[in-house]
Amino acid sequence: MTSASPPVQATRPGSSETPAVSGVTGFGRLLLSEWTKIRSVRSTVWSLVLLVVLTLGFTGLFTWLTILQWDKSDPTQRAQIMADPVSTILGSGLEFGQLTICVLGVLVITSEYSTGVIRASLLAVPRRIPMLAAKALVFAVLVLIVGWLVTFPSFFLGAAILHSHAPVSISDPGVARAVFGAGLYLAVLGLFAMGIGGIIRHTAGAITGVIAFVLVLAPLTQLIPGKIGKYVHAYLPTEAGQLIGQAHQQADQVLSPWEGFGVFCLWTAVLLFIAGYLLKTRDA
Amino acid sequence: MIEARDLTKRYGDKLAVDHLSFTVEPGRVTGFLGPNGAGKSTTMRLILGLDRPHSGTATINGRRYADLAQPLRTVGALLEARAMHTGRSAYNHLLFLAQTQGLPRSRVDQVLGLVGLTEVARKRTGGFSLGMGQRVGIAVALLGDPEILILDEPVNGLDPEGILWIRNLMKQLASEGRTVFVSSHLMNEMAVTADHLIVIGRGKLLAETSTQEFIERSSEKYVLVRSPDVAALADLIVAAGGKAEPENTAGGQTPALRVSNLDAPRIGEIAAADRIVLHELTPRLASLEEAYMELTADSLEYGLPAAGQPAPAAQPANSEPAPATTQGRTE
Asked: H/E/C letters for each residue in A78-134?
C-alpha cells in the first residue's frame, strides 16, 4: 500500500471544480467540526462508558454496603443519610465516576497539543477563540446528556437499594433538582478540566492539576483551623459544585446548593478565560 | 502572493528570524532554502499566524492570515509530517477541517482520492507509514482548493516514488497559476523543483534569485586530472594559461589537480607532449550543493567542528562509504 503512488496525471487538484459549500454557516460549522473531532477518537467513547459503569457500579456497591452495615453504623451517620438520601446516593458513585470526566476534559484539549492537531485546527480557525468556544460548548452538551443518563439511573438504583431504611422519591423537595444538578455538575467539571488542560497543555500535568483540585485540596484545607478553613473549603471549586447534588442546605454549610454551583461556574469561567487568553497570545 | 516585510522572531535571546523580507509570487514554485535551524519553519509559522512575530509583518494577498475568512480556501499548508491524532481516521481528520470551512463531505473523498488514500481513508492514522502520513498532509493542504500552498519539507521521509510524485504535483500546481512556497534543506532537491529561490541562514536573507541564475552563477566548470606527476603537469598547465589547484586525495590514491580555464582535450594534449602519464581526465561541474554550502557556511546553526578544509558534499575526501547524509545528492 505504501508504495502505490497515485498517477500524477489524474491529480488535477481541483481547478476543474471549485468545492461546493455546505449549508451550515458561521459558528455552526465550528460546532459541527468539534463534534466530528470529539466523536472520532476512542478516548471519548471509553471515558464516557467508564463514567456510566463506574458511577452505576459504585452507587450500587456503596448504597448496598450502607444497608448491610446499617445496624452497626453510628447513629449520627444514619441520621445524616436519612435526612438527605439523594446526596448519599449521588455522592457514592459520582465521587469515582467524575474522575473520568476530569481526564476526558483534559484530553479534549491536551491531545490536540500532543498530536499536533492544534496547528491544523488553528490554521482552519486562526482567530482561535471561536474554536475554543465551540469545543467547550460541544463537550459540555455531550457530558450534560451523558451525565443525566448516569445521574438519573444512579438515583433510581440507589433509591431502590436504600428504600427499606432511608426512603426517598424523585418528587421529594429538592431531589429532582439534585439529580438534575448532578448532571450539570459533571458538565461544568468537564469544562473546568478543559480550562486547566488549555492552560497547562500537557496531558499528565493537567490531569494532575485537576485531580489535585478535586481530591487533594479539599482534605488539605480542612486542616486550616477555624472559620477561615471552613470558608476556604466551602469555596473550593468542586466542594462548592457538589452541593448541587444535595436536596437542601445543611445547617453547618456556608453555601446553598445553587450558590455552590454558582461558585463552581465562576471558577470554571475564570479558568476558561485564562485558557482563552493564553490560546490567543501564545505561539501554537 | 506571500509577502514578508522585516519579519523578526526571537525565542529567548536567540533570533530565529532576523528582519526577513521577501515576496513569493504566484505561478511558480519558490524554494525556501537554508540549513537546519535557519528559521525556515519559523518563518512559515509566522506567515500562517501560528507564531507571532516580534516585529514586521507577513501577509497573504495583502492580508494577515488571521484575517482570512475561510483560510483553508486561500492557503493550504503542510507543516510537520504528523499533525494528526493517531486514533482518528484520515477521513475524519479531513472532515473536521472541511467542516470549519463549510466544505462538503464529497470534497474530503475527492482529495483522499487525489493523494491515493481512498482505500485506507477509514483506518486510524496511527498505523500509517511516514509516506502515507505525508499524503494525508498533502490532502489537507489541497482540501480547500487554495491558490497558495505552503509546504514545509514535503519530501522528508518519502521514498523516491513519493518524492517524484510531490515534485510533479508542485510543478503542476504552479502551472495552474498557484503560489507554491516550499522549504527544503537540500539544494539539489530545489534545483529540480523550484523556479525561484529564497535562501536564508540564521534567520537572515542570503539570496533571492531565480534557480537558473543561481545555478549559472555558482556552477564552476573544471577538469579533474589525476597523474603520478602532478607537480610537472601543474607547471605546464599554468604555462598554457590554465589554473591548477591540488585536489584533496585519500592516502594511496594518485594525486590530482583541479584545472580550470583549459578543456579536457587540451590538457590531454599537453600531457601527451611531455609524456606525462594520466590516470584520470574528467570534466566536472562543481555541484550546486557545494555552491549552496559555501553560501550558507557562515550561517550554520550547528556547524560541524572545523576539520581543516571544509569537506564538500559531492566527494568526501576520505572515501568512507558515505552514510545517507543530509547533504546526500538526490541525483
From this structure: HHHHHHCHHHHHHHHHHHHHHHHHHHHHHHHHHHHHHHCHHHHHHHHCCCCHHHHHH
- By Cβ distance, the residue of B71, B95, B159 closest to A3 is B159
Q: Name the A residues in 14-43 with CB < 8 Å from any B CB.
A: 14-15, 18-22, 24-25, 29-30, 32-34, 36-37, 40-43
Residues 6+ apart with CB under 8 A from B213: none
pLDDT digits (tens, 9 = 90+) for B190-219: 888 999 999 998 899 999 999 888 877 776
Please state, in angstroms and rounded to a whole number, the distance separating the CA atoms of residues B110 and B101. 16
Q: In chain A, what residues touch B16 (CB-CB under 8 Å)?
A: none
CA gap B329, B187 in Å, rounded? 9
Reported pTM: 0.83
- Does B42 contact A at CB distance below 8 Å? no
Owner of C-alpha cell 433510581: A156
The DSSP bridge pattern shows strands B14-24 and B2-11 to be antiparallel
State the Cα–Cα distance between residues B174 and B176, nearest whole angstrom. Answer: 5
Residues of chain B with pLDDT under 50: 306-331
- Side by side, the strands of the sheet bearing B179-184 are B75-78, B148-152, B179-184, B29-33, B196-201, B204-210
